Amino acid sequence: MIRSQIASYFREKYSDSFITIKAPGRINLIGEHTDYNLGYVLPASIEKAIYFAVGSNKSNDINIETFLTSPEKINFKLNGKHHPYAAFWGNYFKAILEILSKRKYPLKGFDCVFGGDIPIGAGLSSSAALCCGFIYALSTVLEKEIPKEEIALIAQEAEHRIGLNCGLMDQYAVLFGKKANALFLDCKNLSHKYVPINLEGYNWVLINSNIKHNLAVDSEYNKRRSSCEAVVREIAKIKENVFSLRDVTEDDLYKIQSKVSILDLKRANYVIQENDRVLKMITLLDKGDAQSVGKVLREGHWAMSKDFEITTKELDCLVSIGMELDSVMGSRMMGGGFGGCTINLIKTDAVDECVAAVLSGYYKETGITAEAYDLQIGDGVCILD
Ligand code: GLA
Question: Is the shortest distance between the CB of 158 and ligand 1 below 6 Å?
Fold first, then answer.
């Protein structure tokens, strides 16, 4: 629907000659705030996506229009100076165009219309889809291949310029995702492999708390990163070859107890344990052990709630309600934190009743209407026919 709307708008307004790019959102099974600590993550790309229709226009103008939230249009002049935009997406594209110029990519004029169905601020990486999809679209229109690894780095740099010191999990999930699989990414060397995540007799379901986050502005995200880096700096003074929390053990933490705050130690300890949970999750998925997968999800959630302190009372409420239901094997908050969705593993034959129970319990407790999305794992960014 969105895709055909965008295509017909492009045809009407610009030209018949264009290509369409699909850039998906992502979920994450486990491994939260481990990416910038060069640890492990287990995300997957989903069917919800941002679609871009793009065509070159042989001028000095880059015209971009969207139906993402409300209809908006921005015109960039090639090599022009651009001021911050009221439309949040304009600032991402401005950053990307600046980074591409800095990297000496020859830009040329093009038209672009985009829109999608990834809820914004819901922990499903709408911004990584926006950035990676735009760069991919641009590389197609410029007929200049930009390797996916480089697209990920450019998209990450754009996020950093906007103010979120994120890792690379979201960009890799958007770019390298594969239908029915999660992507096991080792953020230390960026090697990755695919892990099938279908558990016979169980469904993965997303529940949106409808508490929106803005991680770049609520810089609690960046504070977590600073805590982790403070711990790494201290340990590097007493141990060789320590460059990130990936090189740190729980024993190392005891040795620097007096040098950093208890809070920073708690944060670092969470990250070390979260890496272990990713490895455990992969083994359990392989065995098809849904019960234990659910347990790891819950452990991960309460560690994020109590030790890393990135959940909200609403997200804790969603997970607590699930814990009362036998057919909900487990659930956890997902993404950067402070709002967004939980991911839930639920027995297939009880999905409807469990979702209804969670939604109504949540409403009773918070007065907020949550939404459930049936989760479909799709492919990463691609050109559509
Ligand atoms: C956000 C960031 C990612 C990652 C997650 C938390 O989505 O963009 O890099 O840190 O939060 O796991």
Answer: no
Domain count along the chain:
2
Which residue positions in the chain have pLDDT lower than 70? 68, 217-218
The alpha carbon of 368 and the centre of ligand 1 are apart by a number of angstroms equal to 25
Q: CA end-to-end span of the chain, whole Å?
A: 15
What amino acid positions are annotated as catalytic residues? 170
| Total number of residues shown for the chain | 385
How far apart (Å, rounded) are the C-alpha atoms in residues 16 and 30? 43
C-alpha to C-alpha distance for 51 and 6, rounded to whole angstroms: 8
Read off the CATH number of the domain in which 108 is found.
3.30.230.10
Please indicate, yes or no, whether residues 163 and 256 belong to a single structural domain of this protein: no
Question: Do residues 51 and 188 both lie within one domain?
Answer: yes
Taking alpha carbons only, the member of 212, 20, 190 closest to residue 127 is 212
The whole domain housing 136 covers 2-196+379-384
361 in the same domain as 238: yes
Question: How far is the CA of 212 from the CAs of 158, 181, 236, 360, in angstroms?
Answer: 21, 27, 37, 20
Would the CB of 166 count as within 6 Å of ligand 1?
yes
169 lines ligand 1 (CB under 6 A): yes
The confidence score (pLDDT) of residue 217 equals 66
State pLDDT tens for residues 341-360: 999 999 999 999 999 999 99
